[in-house]
């Protein structure tokens, strides 16, 4: 029964990408991605997560996907991981059975003032942590976050993304670091959810 519910929620989330104009298609000009490549598709999770219905559904799907795993903290690289980690933590705490996941943010650069930390939030050495990101393409952002979390002595063996674009070997690069990847949607899911015109 949970699998059926998960599939229904996945389709709902893919549809919300279109309804909230967070999935764009431009076959003529394309979009420049962070990896430097050009793609006819652009996945804008920041626009998606600006909407409470989408945040709630993403958190529900994520918490369903990790329900049998054990974590103490969830976080990732600024800025895309911030709303995602917060939504997961809040949803897990508010639903039954309640779970408490502390959150953390990995800075792209360590601060040059104050404590000069690269990771902000509630982290404890040795704690199992889930590293999250909004979109996976080449894996660069997720790999940075995984390495920074490990440098802070967090135990990272799992990562979660909202959308795996299934391009540029991103998943393989993550798994080569001994990290299993969980993705809520793929590019194919988003293309298939195009509403009738």
Through-space gap between termini: 32 Å
In helices, the fraction of residues equals 25-40%
Low-confidence stretches: 1-5
Tally of alpha and pi helices: 7
Average of pLDDT: 89
| Number of strand segments | 10
Q: Report the radius of gyration as a whole number of Å.
A: 16 Å
Strand order of the largest sheet: 7-6-5-8-9-10
Give the overall silhouette.
Answer: globular
Q: Structural class, from helix and strand content?
A: alpha/beta
How large is the share of residues in beta strands?
A: 15-25%
Largest sheet, strands/sense/barrel: 6 strands, mixed
The run of helices and strands is: HEEEEHHEHEEEHEHEH
Can you walk me through this structure?
38% of the residues lie in helices and 25% in strands. The protein is α/β, with parallel strands linked by helices. The strands form 3 sheets. The chain has a 6-stranded mixed β-sheet with strand order 7-6-5-8-9-10, sandwiched between helices. It has a two-stranded antiparallel sheet with strand order 1-4. Helix 6 (170-175) links the parallel strand 9 (155-164) and strand 10. The radius of gyration is 16 Å and the shape is globular.
């Amino acid at each position: 029964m949970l699998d059926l519910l998960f599939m229904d929620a996945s389709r709902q989330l893919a549809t919300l990408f279109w309804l909230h104009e967070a999935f764009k298609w431009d076959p003529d000009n394309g979009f420049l991605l962070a990896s430097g490549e050009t793609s006819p598709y652009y996945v804008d999770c920041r626009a998606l997560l600006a909407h409470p219905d989408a945040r709630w559904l993403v958190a529900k799907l994520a918490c369903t996907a990790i329900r049998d795993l054990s974590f103490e903290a969830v976080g990732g690289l600024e800025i895309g991981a911030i709303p995602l980690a917060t939504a997961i933590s809040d949803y897990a705490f508010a639903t039954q059975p309640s779970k408490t996941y502390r959150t953390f943010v990995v800075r792209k650069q360590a601060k040059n003032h104050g404590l000069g930390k690269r990771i902000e939030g509630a982290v404890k050495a040795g704690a199992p942590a889930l590293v999250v990101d909004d979109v996976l393409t080449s894996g660069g952002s997720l790999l940075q976050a995984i390495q920074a979390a490990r440098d802070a002595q967090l135990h990272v063996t799992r990562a979660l993304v909202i959308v795996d674009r299934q391009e540029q070997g991103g998943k393989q690069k993550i798994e080569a670091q001994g990290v299993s990847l969980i993705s809520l949607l793929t590019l194919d899911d988003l293309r298939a959810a195009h509403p009738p015109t």
